[in-house]
Amino acid sequence: MTPVPTLPLPSPRPDAAPAEPGLLSLVGRTPLARIHTPLPHPHPGFWAKLEGLGAGGMKASAAVSMLTGARRRGELRPGAPVVESTSGTLGLGLAFAGQALGHPVVLVGDTELEPSMRRLLRSHGARLELVDRPAPRGGWQAARLVRLREVLARTEDAYWPDQYNNPDNPAGYRSMAAELVDRLDHLDVLVCSVGTGGHSAGLAGALRRRWPRLRVVGVDSVGSALFGQPARPRLMRGLGSSIRPRNVRPELFDEVHWVGPAEATDACRRLARGSFVSGGWSTGAVALVAAWAARTEPGAVVATVFPDGPHRYLGTVYDDEFCAAHGLTGATPAARPLEIAHPGAAEAVGWTRCRTPRTRPAAGGAA
């Protein structure tokens, strides 16, 4: 297993918070659970890495990797502030990494960020800057990027990790890949949610070196532009993107699925009732696709990553009134996805599969 690096803190800024490097030992080593709950259809089971049970969530690995990499290169001075845009999950990882390494963290979010997540991030010492309206082009991500640049301009020594384009983001998941290799004798199919592109790129490369014939299935959100679909307003947070980041590498994927919020919600709730283990939008989306892969490929070993737990989503995915108001209840997901020949053939409005992901898109900015 690749150890998480620790670095000394020479000559910190006078206003720097004390580092707690011992926290780094808490990253990783999350459980690997066997999931058999019908979602909604019976399947033979798949493996799920439960990142919601790790300190700082799944993206703590990426956050630590990005900050330690910047410190090695001299881009992040000891005790200097870290400024990043986030829809929530990476923000939690950065709050963790900031405490461990002694850096104040400023997070640029938006007013769609759940009140519970705002309170959680602030309780961990992060300062929030919230934008209150999406940009006409690029939505909330573009609006956050504008505010982020304003914060960087007025914050001395600030460092921007640029999660969507930073190669240290996928590098942070090599230890997770090593854990999967340690736990599994074989792996045929890896199902990955796709947002920043970090964990899919980090896992796919490392695991294919161990299992060259591994099939990698990407799971995106309807309304996301990552694989060439038109960008639309999205209810789901943390899955998909309105921009096209460099860390998302379509050539790594053998196929891509777009999943809608009602389908992801249904899977989350079934997991909670049937396995006790569940999470948010990304967890529901990958669980739906992993169960389908296990059902349609008898004998295949299928694994996925549940990026977080359910707590952030008690006011959305697990709230009956929210779900009713957004049309997320009452329909049972289909047994299989619709299929399109290529990402531009039709717009996905529900669970849709494409076996020819588009070649690498043009690089976009960070958000």
UniProtKB/TrEMBL annotation:
<protein>
    <submittedName>
        <fullName>PLP-dependent cysteine synthase family protein</fullName>
    </submittedName>
</protein>
<keyword id="KW-0663">Pyridoxal phosphate</keyword>
<feature type="region of interest" description="Disordered">
    <location>
        <begin position="1"/>
        <end position="22"/>
    </location>
</feature>
<dbReference type="InterPro" id="IPR050214">
    <property type="entry name" value="Cys_Synth/Cystath_Beta-Synth"/>
</dbReference>
<dbReference type="InterPro" id="IPR001926">
    <property type="entry name" value="TrpB-like_PALP"/>
</dbReference>
<feature type="domain" description="Tryptophan synthase beta chain-like PALP">
    <location>
        <begin position="25"/>
        <end position="308"/>
    </location>
</feature>
<dbReference type="InterPro" id="IPR036052">
    <property type="entry name" value="TrpB-like_PALP_sf"/>
</dbReference>
<dbReference type="Pfam" id="PF00291">
    <property type="entry name" value="PALP"/>
</dbReference>
<feature type="compositionally biased region" description="Pro residues">
    <location>
        <begin position="1"/>
        <end position="15"/>
    </location>
</feature>
